[in-house]
Automatic annotation (TrEMBL):
Keyword Transmembrane included in the entry's annotation: yes
CDD domains: ABC_6TM_Tm288_like
ABC transmembrane type-1 domain sequence ranges: 32-314
Source superkingdom: Bacteria
Places the protein is found: Cell membrane
PROSITE patterns: ABC_TM1F, ABC_TRANSPORTER_1, ABC_TRANSPORTER_2
TM region(s), chain numbering: 30-52, 72-90, 147-167, 173-190, 264-282
Domain ABC transporter stretches: 379-613
SMART domains linked: AAA
One term under GO cellular component: plasma membrane
Originating species: Candidatus Blautia faecavium
Protein name, UniProt field: ABC transporter ATP-binding protein/permease
């Protein structure tokens, strides 16, 4: 059953913040400049407001026009500097945010490439896509809206309090009480909304995954008339998302009105008391005018703090999920043996070479003096036991061999372990017990990239990429020439249908080959394996979606492709394995029979019954 990314509060909030700050550190100079400009903008606003005091006092005292104009120009210069600083930090913040997001996406994608297939088996595509869309978007919102504003708001709050105490320390005690009431409510509201923001992001990932699942399986949904049932399930998930979102936003939405209400009350009280103090001669009118404007403005940075708090809460929840995936242990590869091009000497020995040759050999990078082992394609299983989950055996004490150039076919019912055998050869998974050797080398000692380079595989479920027909075939060998691509297509018997397409080999493939039939897609997968020209070939029910007439046409090409190669075939039709050197009958993870077609028919065992339709093969 697929696991989902939970939406609980981060187990280590400090660690999440620390990792996010590490990305900030990559662009520290730009962020320091942004912080400086944000601080200048805040200070300009504070100093500009303070300039009300001398202006009012001069007017009350009947000061000259020259002095008034000078103070007005100074205030204008201060506010102009603040406006330019605001323009500067907002533009720079956009650039910094995009650079940081680019780094996060790149690191996440790079790490995903290093994870084992077991991780992808346990995750839904929608959950993984949600990391790159919803979660990264929430981080983007926080960066663009919060970083500079929080610095600016902090400077404004501290600076406002400093100026207020300078102007009138008695009245400032009342301001402190108002601030304290605001922060207590913000703390309570933030704690409540954080819990529901986490749930909201988790439900959003579930809903995205469900939508993607249903969109991909619409044909099945319509065949079984499950539209109504699926809609009910969608409504259930959508309702949970709505409830979490409403509750989170409900708590968050009360913060600003509460802060504004407290600030209004505070302002009214201070205005009355301040007026009394001016009448009593305890304060001048200019100080009170400047003071009241500052008190009125004091709610703005606090409101900004509360607004940015919402962005930060969602961003931390998203960042925690992104970092939890990036903390997953990558696929372990302790192999030291690599695949190298070699040239054959006159005495039959081999020497490594840089240029592309038709010979390959295994070389131990940990011991360059070790002799080269020619790549032949000798694959052997030695008492192999394996299970995808602990305690569940899929293969039980399997021993088999495939000599270079042999064609080995696996037949058996669903769940017998046929595909698992091929998954172990290319080290998608490692064996639990026993060992698999490749040209006498334990596959665990071969670097995974090099091992897989020597293998060609055609899966039953074909996956095509967005690009041209030629690009999809070239995926098997990225430096393949057009001539090699067309030769591979002819081997797979795909050349004729490709040339009938509107643009031939330049025809675009979209939506995983939706503009092609299933059989055509599989022919392209076979051509992709052919262009790779591997010494070992794995065909996992590769012709299951091809009609019998087309299958007969490509058999000659397949024979040409398989000539001189070790080939493992998982059979969907017994007719495709008649010419195999050895047919292995698997049942419940064990080898029941082995032999060629005639030998197994003579035994009149399970293969005989399968071949004569007494058992169903799937």
């Amino acid at each position: 059953m697929a696991k989902t990314f939970n939406g609980k509060r981060p187990a280590n909030l400090r660690q999440t913040v620390k990792k996010l700050l590490a990305y900030f550190g990559r662009h520290r100079r730009l962020l320091i400049l942004i912080g400086f400009l944000a601080a200048v903008s805040a200070m300009a606003n504070l100093v500009g407001t303070y300039m009300i005091r001398p202006l009012v006092n001069q007017l009350v005292a009947g000061g000259g026009t020259e002095s008034l104009i000078r103070n007005v120009l100074i205030a204008a210069l201060i506010f102009g500097t603040g406006a330019l600083s605001t323009l500067g930090y907002t533009q720079l913040m956009v650039r910094a945010a995009q650079q940081i997001l680019c780094d996060i996406r790149q690191d996440l994608y790079t790490h995903l490439q290093k994870l084992s297939l077991g991780f992808f088996d346990a995750q839904r595509k929608g959950d993984l896509m949600s990391l790159f869309t919803n979660d990264v978007d929430t981080i983007s919102d926080a960066l663009n809206n919060s970083f500079a504003v929080i610095i600016q708001s902090f400077v404004q709050i501290v600076g406002t309090l400093a100026i207020l105490f300078f102007l009138n320390w008695r009245l400032s005690l009342l301001v402190i009480l108002g601030y304290l009431a605001m922060f207590l409510y913000i703390r309570y509201s933030t704690k409540q909304s954080k819990k529901y923001y986490d749930r909201h992001q988790a439900y959003l990932g579930e809903l995205d995954g469900y939508i993607e699942e249903m969109a991909a399986g619409q044909k099945v949904v319509k065949v079984f008339n499950h539209e109504k049932e699926n809609l009910e399930k969608f409504k259930e998930k959508n309702k949970a998302l709505q409830k979490a979102g409403t509750t989170a936003q409900g708590y968050a939405a009360t913060m600003i009105p509460a802060v504004v209400s407290i600030s209004y009350i505070n302002y009214a009280v201070i205005a009355v008391i301040g007026g009394v103090m001016v009448i009593m001669g305890l304060s001048d009118l200019g100080s009170l005018a400047s003071y009241l404007v500052l008190v009125r403005q004091a709610a703005l940075p606090i409101n900004q703090f509360t607004q940015q708090g919402n962005f930060l809460l969602a961003a931390l929840a998203g960042a925690e999920r992104v970092f939890s995936v990036m903390d997953k242990e990558p696929e372990v590869d302790e192999g030291t043996i690599r695949l190298v091009n070699v040239k054959k000497n006159s005495d039959g020995s081999f020497t490594p070479c840089q240029e592309r040759s038709k010979y390959w050999a295994w070389q131990d990078s940990a011991d360059p003096s070790a002799p080269l082992i020619p790549l032949k394609g000798d694959v052997r299983f030695d008492h192999v036991t394996f299970g995808y989950q602990p305690g569940q055996k899929i293969l039980d004490d399997i021993s088999l061999y495939a000599k270079p150039g042999q064609k080995i076919a696996f037949v058996g019912s669903t769940g017998a372990g046929k595909t698992t055998v091929t998954n172990l050869i290319n080290r998608f998974y490692d064996v639990s017990q026993g060992r698999i050797t490749y040209d006498g080398i334990d596959v665990r000692n071969i670097r995974k990239d090099d091992l897989r380079q020597s293998l060609g595989i055609v899966l039953q479920d074909t996956h095509l990429f967005t690009g041209t027909i030629a690009d999809n075939i070239r995926f098997g060998k990225l430096d393949a020439t057009q001539e090699e691509i067309e030769k591979a297509a002819r081997i797979a018997n795909a050349d004729s249908f490709i040339r009938r397409l509107p643009k031939g080999y330049d025809t675009m493939v979209t939506s995983d080959g939706a503009n092609l039939s299933q059989g055509q897609r599989q022919l392209l997968a076979i051509a992709r394996a052919a262009v790779a020209d591997p010494p070992v070939l794995i065909l996992d029910e590769a012709t299951s979606s091809i009609d019998t007439r087309t299958e007969a046409l490509i058999e000659k090409g397949m024979d040409q492709l398989m000539e001189g190669r070790t080939v493992f075939v998982i059979a969907h039709r017994l007719s495709t394995v008649r010419n195999a050197n050895a047919i292995i009958v698997l049942e419940h993870g064990r080898i029941m029979e082995r032999g060629d077609h005639d030998e197994l028919l003579a035994q009149k065992g399970e293969y005989y019954q399968l071949y004569n339709g007494m058992f169903e093969l799937s």
